[in-house]
């Protein structure tokens, strides 16, 4: 057993107990752990307050800004001749509403926006797929913060800092296993509610639950698009852009089709 002894010195008639130097350094920074290292909260604030240009140096890859992601009207104008129109009747919307959504095929961790959504597991401590990629890019402090949140139930959403990600925040939500539309709807609703509550103007979603959780792609896309549309109609000024971040070619084809149904343009 290691026994630490304090040294006693005299100072102007007072006897002062002096702790060993390395313990003094630890105690002098109440929120650091271990000594000499910033806590995750300090790291979180550091990255939140960091200029975008400086923060880009921490991300190992190219960064994508929101102005590099076309809105749905911009995408439609450029690609409508090659995109098969849906067989279902399109719900026509005004271009301003349609301009708040995007479909984009790329790496969600590269997006320099207010928040990206993580398709997490209930522990919130990282996993495979999108979850693992986000944790790797954000760095170890993301897991440290997640460990304080007490997990997350299916359909719930919780928010953390983005740390070394280009995004400022990560909103973690746990999707259902199998086709459970009410629970999947809650994932999108609760994530959007957190974005609104925290005054986040731009947010990106992966295809929640369609990987190893086994939710069929097209039904999942319908839930995602209908839920986001309802939110945008009811909260017209809450967000500037919702990005559907797609990985598979089949997801891209489904969203090309269904975006014209839910956000129909001439």
Structural description of this entry:
The chain is 37% helix and 17% strand. With 266 residues, the chain is α/β, with parallel strands linked by helices. It has one domain: Leucine Aminopeptidase, subunit E, domain 1 (3-Layer(aba) Sandwich), CATH 3.40.220.10. The strands form three sheets. The protein has a six-stranded mixed sheet, sandwiched between helices. A hairpin with a 7-residue loop joins strand 7 and strand 8. The chain is globular, with a radius of gyration of 23 Å. The N terminus is likely disordered.
Q: Averaged pLDDT, please?
A: 87
Number of strands: 10
Work out the strand percent.
15-25%
How many helices? The count is: 10
In spatial order, strands of the major sheet run 4-10-9-6-8-7
Counted up, domains total 1
Provide the CATH superfamily. Answer: Leucine Aminopeptidase, subunit E, domain 1
What are the low-pLDDT stretches, counting only 5+ consecutive residues below 50? 1-37
| Classification by helices and strands | alpha/beta
What coarse outline follows from CA principal-axis ratios? globular
**CATH fold description:** Leucine Aminopeptidase, subunit E, domain 1
Query: How much helix is in the residues?
Result: 25-40%
Rg over alpha carbons: 23 Å
The second-level CATH architecture is: 3-Layer(aba) Sandwich
Pfam families: Macro (PF01661)
InterPro entries: Macro_dom, Macro_dom-like
Protein name: MACRO domain-containing protein
GO molecular function: ADP-ribosylglutamate hydrolase activity
């Amino acid at each position: 057993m290691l026994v630490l002894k304090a040294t006693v010195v005299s100072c102007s008639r007072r006897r002062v107990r002096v702790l060993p130097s390395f313990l003094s350094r630890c105690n002098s920074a109440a929120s650091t752990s271990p000594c000499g290292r910033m806590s995750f909260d300090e790291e979180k604030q550091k990255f939140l307050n960091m200029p975008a240009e400086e923060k880009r140096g921490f991300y190992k890859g190219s960064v994508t800004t929101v102005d590099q992601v076309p809105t749905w009207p911009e995408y439609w104008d450029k690609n409508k001749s090659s995109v098969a129109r849906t067989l279902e009747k399109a719900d026509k919307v005004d271009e301003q509403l349609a301009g708040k959504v995007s479909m984009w095929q790329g790496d969600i961790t590269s997006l320099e926006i207010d928040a990206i959504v993580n398709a997490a597991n209930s522990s919130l401590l990282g996993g495979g797929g999108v979850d693992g990629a986000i944790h790797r890019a954000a760095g170890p402090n993301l897991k440290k913060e997640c460990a304080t949140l007490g997990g997350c139930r299916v359909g719930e959403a919780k928010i953390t800092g983005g740390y070394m990600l280009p995004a400022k925040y990560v909103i973690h939500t746990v999707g259902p296993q199998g086709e459970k539309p009410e629970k999947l709807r809650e994932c999108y609703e609760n994530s959007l509610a957190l974005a609104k509550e925290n005054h986040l103007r731009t947010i990106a979603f992966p295809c929640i639950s369609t990987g190893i959780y086994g939710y069929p792609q097209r039904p999942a896309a319908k839930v995602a698009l209908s839920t986001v549309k309802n939110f945008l109609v009811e909260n017209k000024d809450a967000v500037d852009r919702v990005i559907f971040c797609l990985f598979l070619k089949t997801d891209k084809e489904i969203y090309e089709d269904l975006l014209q149904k839910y956000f129909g343009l001439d």
